[in-house]
Amino acid sequence: MQQPAPPSPSNADAAPLRGWQRAAIWLLVAVLLALVFMLYTQPEFMVRMADHVWACF
What we know:
Blueprint: H1 19-39, H2 43-55
């Protein structure tokens, strides 16, 4: 005999994000992406990352 699945939480219980919260999340994502892209312009970083990847094998 199968057990009934527990009720899944609905999105109605979660409070929607406010406008400034949504903007803050997008700003944080943009800053993190910019920092990652800036790291890839440094040759020393790229060599170090390649050495780390190569060490896994």
